[in-house]
Design the sequence.
């Protein structure tokens, strides 16, 4: 014990760099958690908007047979804009919910990339200006503003997508690229029906480890990946039962 206190007294100054390193890890973890939470909210909102855009089944109303709702003059144009808006959102979700695509094109979800940041800003503007429904009564100014926002949203995503496919992982360091490559290989094992259950489970856990702190993977994407792994795990059992 005396030796320990002698060591501590001689090297007390080591406390400060150790605290700095620990603080850096803590801040990095907190920023990653915040980014995942923010992206999860964006994805949930986008999925809710796509679901709400699905036209409901028409049901005849016996209580008011003579009641006819007058459509909005802008309804045809709003329906077209809603379809364009939803199509771009679906293209974005195709990346955000697919871990394999996020690994292949990591900058598409990186808000630090200027073109990706511009796309995300355009998305927020289009979402904010979107009327409640295609049947909503809007002014000419509101309709024009929403139409412009949808066009900007589509163009911004096209540009960000092309840039992400051009860059791939070139903006990452050599060590980070090795981690992405390793995660890609492990992901193939995690969803490979020919691999053993133990191999798939180990591969899945290592995918999470390789991507941690490297790219932002939403909770929704993780859930979908876990479902794919679970399906592959259940497949042999189902086949043997039959």
Sequence:
């Amino acid at each position: 014990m005396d030796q320990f206190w002698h060591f501590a007294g001689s090297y007390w100054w080591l406390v400060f760099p150790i605290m700095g390193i620990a603080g850096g890890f803590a801040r990095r973890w907190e920023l990653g958690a915040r980014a995942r939470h923010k992206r999860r909210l964006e994805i949930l909102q986008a999925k809710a908007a796509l679901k709400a855009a699905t036209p409901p089944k028409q049901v005849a109303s016996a209580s008011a047979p003579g009641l006819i709702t007058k459509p909005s003059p802008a309804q045809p144009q709003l329906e077209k804009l809603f379809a364009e808006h939803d199509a771009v959102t679906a293209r974005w979700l195709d990346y955000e919910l697919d871990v394999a695509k996020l690994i292949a094109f990591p900058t598409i979800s990186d808000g630090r990339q200027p073109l990706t940041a511009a796309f995300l800003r355009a998305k927020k503007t289009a979402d904010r200006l979107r009327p409640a429904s295609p049947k909503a009564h809007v002014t000419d100014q509101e309709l024009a503003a929403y139409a412009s926002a949808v066009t900007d949203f589509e163009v911004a995503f096209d540009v960000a997508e092309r840039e992400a496919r051009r860059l791939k992982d070139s903006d990452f360091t050599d060590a980070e690229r090795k981690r992405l490559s390793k995660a890609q290989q492990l992901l193939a094992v995690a969803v490979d029906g020919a691999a053993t259950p133990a191999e798939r489970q180990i591969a899945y856990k290592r995918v999470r480890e390789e991507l941690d702190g490297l790219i932002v993977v939403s909770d929704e994407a993780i859930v979908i990946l876990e479902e794919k792994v679970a399906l592959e795990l259940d497949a042999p059992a189902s086949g043997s039962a039959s």
